[in-house]
Amino acid sequence: MSFFSKSPKNNEHNSSSIKWTQLLTIEQLELIKNNSFNNPIVIFKHSTRCSVSSMALSRLERNWNTTKTGNLEMYFLDLIIYRSVSNAIAEKFSVRHESPQLLLIKNGEVIYHASHNEIIFEDFVAKLV
Length: 129
Fold this sequence. Notes:
Elements: E1 12-15, E2 18-22, H1 27-35, E3 41-46, H2 51-63, H3 66-69, E4 73-78, H4 83-93, E5 101-106, E6 109-115, H5 121-125
Parallel strand pairs: 2-4, 3-4
Antiparallel strand pairs: 1-2, 3-5, 5-6
């Protein structure tokens, strides 16, 4: 069972080998955009009420391979609690809101995004090169 099936208490947590940072505020989006010029960043938007979202998160965690991801920063958004942040992501990065959704941000722009069963570790890792 994923750590995020319950509401996280910390800002960071190691789940499997993924070091998640919670995305809690709209202000964090500017930091994410700026930091993406140094290292790629992933945002995973998760609905705690959706079994497809839980399945996508679980599959991502099971297939995670730190050797292939390097210094990738991982942000987790509980979009039920932080819907305004989810809406701001759609606006800031010009990507239609979906849930679950994975966004890969590099040099201030979304270079890859996927939702539902299309969230596949190997697919977004291929975009890191």
